Amino acid sequence: MVRIGIMGYGNLGRGIECAIKQNADMKLVAVFTRRNPETVKILTEGVSVYSVDDVQKLKDEIDVLILCGGSATDLPKQTMEYAKYFNVVDSFDTHAKIPEHFANVDEAAAAAGNVAIISCGWDPGMFSLNRLYSGAILPMGKDYTFWGKGVSQGHSDAIRRVEGVLDGKQYTIPVDAALEAVRSCSNPDLTTREKHIRECFVVAEEGADLARIEAEIKNMPNYFADYDTTVHFISKEELDRDHSGIPHGGFVIRTGKTGWNEEHNHVVEYSLKLDSNPEFTASVIVAYARAAFRMSKEGMKGCKTVFDVAPAYLSTLSGEELRKQLL
Amino acid sequence: MVRIGIMGYGNLGRGIECAIKQNADMKLVAVFTRRNPETVKILTEGVSVYSVDDVQKLKDEIDVLILCGGSATDLPKQTMEYAKYFNVVDSFDTHAKIPEHFANVDEAAAAAGNVAIISCGWDPGMFSLNRLYSGAILPMGKDYTFWGKGVSQGHSDAIRRVEGVLDGKQYTIPVDAALEAVRSCSNPDLTTREKHIRECFVVAEEGADLARIEAEIKNMPNYFADYDTTVHFISKEELDRDHSGIPHGGFVIRTGKTGWNEEHNHVVEYSLKLDSNPEFTASVIVAYARAAFRMSKEGMKGCKTVFDVAPAYLSTLSGEELRKQLL
User: Fold this and answer.
1) What is the pLDDT of residues A237-258, one digit of tens each?
2) In Å, how far are A28, A45, A64, A209 from A1, measured between CA atoms?
3) Which member of A140, A266, A315 has the closest CB to residue B274?
4) Is A76 helix (H, G, I), strand (E, B) or coil?
5) Are residues A83 and A112 in contact, defined by beta-carbon separation less than 8 angstroms?
6) What angle is formed at CA B220 by the lines to CA B160 and CA B159, rounded to 5 degrees?
7) What is the distance between the alpha carbons of residues B246 and B223, in angstroms, rounded to a whole number?
8) Residues 58-97 of A with CB under 8 A from B
9) How far is residue B264 from each of residues A301, B96, B183, B320, measured CA to CA in Å?
10) Mapping DSSP to helix (H, G, I), strand (E, B) and coil, where does residue A162 land?
11) What is the 3-state secondary structure of chain B?
12) N- to C-terminal Cα distance for chain A?
């Protein structure tokens, strides 16, 4: 049994808890929170919620500590801190800061003799893996990543900051014509606007100037100005009824050429269609927690990413079973 | 530089040669053949063709020997034999015999201190990897593999054995309705007939009984009887003009559920659309030859499959570059 601790109990932490339930070789032993533990109700019977301050007391009960904080401020501190005491897995997803995060975590984990796997999930994560595999196989080619259809938390937050907006949800949607152009092996150079559209569902205050709100959203730099954006004003009831889920997904497509004169085209496509972004991310993380546990048992240490983990470590099946059933 | 030898110069061997040309860190040093070497003309200038009997003489010139023989009779002998002297990669694809092949090759490679990677390509190979990854992430789910649209060599050969047939080509085609049923997360149980159709293009002898040929093909046990099969009679010119390529591809789809009450559905889909089956297979093999070379340098030995190879070994990029550019 791999004994798991969950640090942080939001959407992702709850997803981890659900994923552990689906994996017979895994056991949840503790949830840690910055809130008052008595106010945090979890789903698993017989498992306690502890204050984050008590995490070291459970050092010997936990094989892998899964860090469910945010990438902006939590994980840059937490992962390197807890890698001193535990094997850890995180889903750090600020792409530009991954090299720095890796270096910090590697130093802590290597010194302590622990395994830390960072940036697990689907992007970074499964999408990264597919970029690597298809790029290694088809060096003369080009890859494209599309996101959606799915809810972008950052863009939804940006909408909610507009004056007169009570609530809102934003969907990122890949443009079908762009997907088809890529699949045709024409190697298109696509602008930001050509790749994705943004669709917003907005609940406005009564009497608010809707035209002003719509213009303010559509012209917002970084978030919306570079995209074709549509804004729908709906009631709070409609938003809660039709847009309360957290779906996401996307596509990684690489096209490339082979042959002595590069006369043959190939398309490698990986896609995800997810009802729940945090639950799928959590499912990836839990598989990598299994890997962290096994790699640590074999004496490995330091910071790893999905690129460094041999696939067999993720599966409950033995090498023999894998070769017989899946190869 | 990784110095490569190619054992066997058919479609796959030529594909390996083309793939090496695309990889700046790889160098072809020798091609070995069972034919008279003087009759074998290769594409790469300055590289010699040798008799298979001379392979051991080039032991010190070759880092990885790529075995391009067939799975029926060549590879069961060759891989275990050459693993005594070289790091080797093969594309052994008789799924049912992989465990036995693995055991034989592992013994030889481990004793000699070499790395042998078997069953590289796309199925077994990339499709197997996708079955493993998606299965580890979504344990409560089901996976489906579809092949095509593509040419099946075995079925084309079967057509050609029918009396009165001069030549023929068979395409395996996934049934769209089956793909859609799988993607809908309805977890359908699909029969052989529901998953794929078979389309045959046949050149008949002049005056042959076409109805008899068509019936004989459609009722052929194992090959066609369990499928909806269509037979088109065409001229030799049409066959050569329209059906001389070796395209293939397919889909690996896993659907699964997450959530405390399994209330959320997810679809993970990997697909390939290949103009040239042997050239794409060769491109996968060459990436794994790079991995075999590096793993051997690190002191690893014995038989491996795609499941045992950490993805980073496949790429020419360093760990730092991978994290910065692809993660």
Assistant:
1) 999 999 999 999 999 999 999 9
2) 10, 18, 11, 58
3) A266
4) helix
5) yes
6) 10
7) 19
8) 95
9) 35, 35, 14, 36
10) coil
11) CEEEEEECCCHHHHHHHHHHHHCCCEEEEEEEECCCHHHCCCCCCCCEEEEHHHHHHHHHHCCEEEECCCCCCHHHHHHHHHCCCCEEECCCCCHHHHHHHHHHHHHHHHHHCCEEECCCCECCEHHHHHHHHHHHHCCCEEEEEEECCEECHHHHHHHHCCCCEEEEEEEEEECHHHHHHHHCCCCCCCCHHHHEEEEEEEEECCCCCHHHHHHHHHCCCCCCCCCEEEEEECCHHHHHHHCCCECEEEEEEEEEEECCCCCEEEEEEEEEEECEHHHHHHHHHHHHHHHHHHHHHCCCCEEECHHHCCHHHHCCCCHHHHHHHCC
12) 26
Contact assessment for residue B272 and residue B84, using Cβ atoms and an 8 Å cutoff: no
Q: Which two tokens stand for residue B107?
A: 């013994």
Q: Is B41 on the interface with A (CB under 8 A)?
A: no
Confidence of residue A17 (pLDDT cuts 50, 70, 90): very high
Q: Please, what is the average pLDDT of chain B?
A: 97
**Which residues of chain A does B139 touch, with a Cβ-Cβ cutoff of 8 Å?**
22-23, 316
User: Quick one: tokens of B142?
Assistant: 């089901």
d(CA A106, CA B187): 42
pLDDT of residue B159: 96
Helix (H) or strand (E) holding A232: strand A228-233
What is the three-state SS of B40-61?
Answer: CCCCCCCCEEEEHHHHHHHHHH
Closest CA of chain B from A200, distance in Å: 23
Mean pLDDT in residue range A51-56: 97
